[in-house]
Amino acid sequence: MDLVGGCRAFVSVSETGSFTAGAALARIPQPVASRRIAALERHFGERLFDRSTRRARLTPFGRDVLPSARRLVQLAEAMEHDAKRARLRPVRVAVPATCGVRELAGLAAEARALEVHLEFRAAGPGERAELVRTSEVRAALTAVPAEEAVWSVPLGVAAVDLGPSRVVHLETLRTGRSAGVRRRVWIQPEDDVPHVRDRVLRVRDAVGLSPAQVSVADSFTAAAAEVFASADLLLCSVAQAEELGLSWRPIGELGLARGFGVAAALAEDADRLRTTLHAAVGRCLGAGR
């Protein structure tokens, strides 16, 4: 039986002295209140009200159990209040620093429509999974190889002027093929992971570039500043190139992509990001451009 519902009807009728008024106080139809109280009486094996009078008068048994019924109803109401507050508590998610404010706001708005309140913490690729492990966040968008990814973001190179070419071959950056100017490729911190960085370094060595021609920048801003101040190239996504107003081309020697997965303390948080919010998360990451 519904013990809490029965006790709520019992307390309401006892406070008003009327089944009709008590039902209204409990916000249920009068027949429902009567059925719940009757079920409670069958459960206890005793009458709670003396029905021989016009008013709903408590029996001695009813008076004895009324304090406990009140406490149960109050505890149930407190639990409902706590549950509502818990549902409003933000789900903290570690995201790449490359995510834009507008896209994150759109993701948060979509989640709120599902009564999920997201809160974001920008962090580097090596830090995000650790934040989940230490319970500083409940979920993280982690850097993984593209073949293992839930979301994949194509990477290429961007510069102020890349000319009419449809792709950029890194071999064209060799000294002697660009009037003696040693152009560099800048890797931003989000791509300073083995499955991206090491593939670029292997191509660098294979085509005969000097070690200094592929460098990891301290930040995305620092990498972009180098590109604006020179003929250097920035390893980035299409969305980042558009944000900076740069020309973007794929790399001729290799197909390259950022891969993202999900790490979460609770399976339901991971599933929600992978499925229901998949498209909104992808927009934040620059996938599908």
Automatic annotation (TrEMBL):
<dbReference type="InterPro" id="IPR036388">
    <property type="entry name" value="WH-like_DNA-bd_sf"/>
</dbReference>
<keyword id="KW-0805">Transcription regulation</keyword>
<protein>
    <submittedName>
        <fullName>LysR family transcriptional regulator</fullName>
    </submittedName>
</protein>
<dbReference type="InterPro" id="IPR036390">
    <property type="entry name" value="WH_DNA-bd_sf"/>
</dbReference>
<comment type="similarity">
    <text>Belongs to the LysR transcriptional regulatory family.</text>
</comment>
<feature type="domain" description="HTH lysR-type">
    <location>
        <begin position="1"/>
        <end position="59"/>
    </location>
</feature>
<dbReference type="Pfam" id="PF00126">
    <property type="entry name" value="HTH_1"/>
</dbReference>
<dbReference type="InterPro" id="IPR000847">
    <property type="entry name" value="LysR_HTH_N"/>
</dbReference>
<keyword id="KW-0804">Transcription</keyword>
